[in-house]
Amino acid sequence: MLSLIKLPRVFTINQVPKVFHEDSIISGYRHPRSSATDCILSLFQLTNETLNIWTHFLPTWYFLWKLVTVVLMQPVWQDSFTWPLVIFLLSCCIYPLASSCAHTFSSMSARARHICFFFDYGALSFYSLGSAIIYSAYVFPDKWVNSFFHQCYIPIAVCNAIISTNMACYSRFPECQSPKFSKCLRVVAFAYPYLFDNIPLFYRVFLCAGEGCTDNDTNILHYNHIALAFLTGFLFATHLPERLAPGSFDYIGHSHQLFHVCGILGTHFQMKAIEQDMVTRRSWLLEHSIPITFSNSVGAALLCVVVNLIIIILYSLPLLSAPVCQEKKCGKGSKKTSSKVPCC
Ligand SMILES: [Zn+2]
């Protein structure tokens, strides 16, 4: 019965246009003009994207289950204290879902690939804002609660998320001409909001001394999350282990799969830590912290979603209006590549 389903063939790096190339991945590429059906079929065929898809698709359901549990078990609509948790869990569902969809459909065309990853970047920046909203509500150390920094923290995080989406989407445009510059831009686009959002947590667990440091049992979970977050960034930036042995990790064990797994584990520990902080600090925070309002929770999240969507549309328009370059293969004569449109 299975033999009746004809799975699409896979290609080597030299058989697909440069825009589809992955650093040190030699084989397992899908057809660069795959149909949507072929893309879905590739979930059940070992290609260099298969585990990228599954490592984010399955965790989407885990975080969705957590979100549904919170919404069903807690009086979310009446209790504004739980709103940041709901926003954070929503962002934890959206970013792996957007990523698994991007990895699934990225082989439909060069244009589809860029647009798919624009959504992936927008979802990641929304997750960074989700983290900031939840940190502001439950994680800030006692000492910093209600400080000037605490008051400015969410507006700055919203700006950072928007800048991050913008930078990450832009990074795809110079990709063919200067891949290193493009990669650097993308690393900065994700590292910068992460580092800013974690300032209160880093201060709390690494620097704070004396009273008001919120030195509780939750810190060990925060350490796990921070360690995994740095490992995630390291894997993304270095392309290890495949850079040491190009072609050996094409299907299983390459850096992007490990990056997905570490990212999800990090998010899991982050969620556990935050839930614990939320429960143990609830009464103190309700008494001393900035009240959780529509504008510093749901409103900020909605603003980020709307602006991110506008950015994605603006970056997608030049691609949609430039059909010529979509089919062009990169190679010795592809001099006409425009810096305005990422095609090669
Ligand atoms: Zn990915």
From TrEMBL:
Binding-site list for Zn(2+): 103, 256, 260
A GO-annotated cellular component: membrane
A Pfam short name: HlyIII
Membrane-related topology note: Multi-pass membrane protein
Database matches in InterPro entries: AdipoR/HlyIII-related (IPR004254)
Protein location: Membrane
Transmembrane segments: 60-77, 83-105, 117-138, 184-203, 223-240, 298-320
GO-annotated molecular function: metal ion binding; signaling receptor activity
The protein's name: Membrane progestin receptor gamma-B isoform X2
Highest classification ranks of the organism: Eukaryota, Metazoa, Chordata, Craniata, Vertebrata
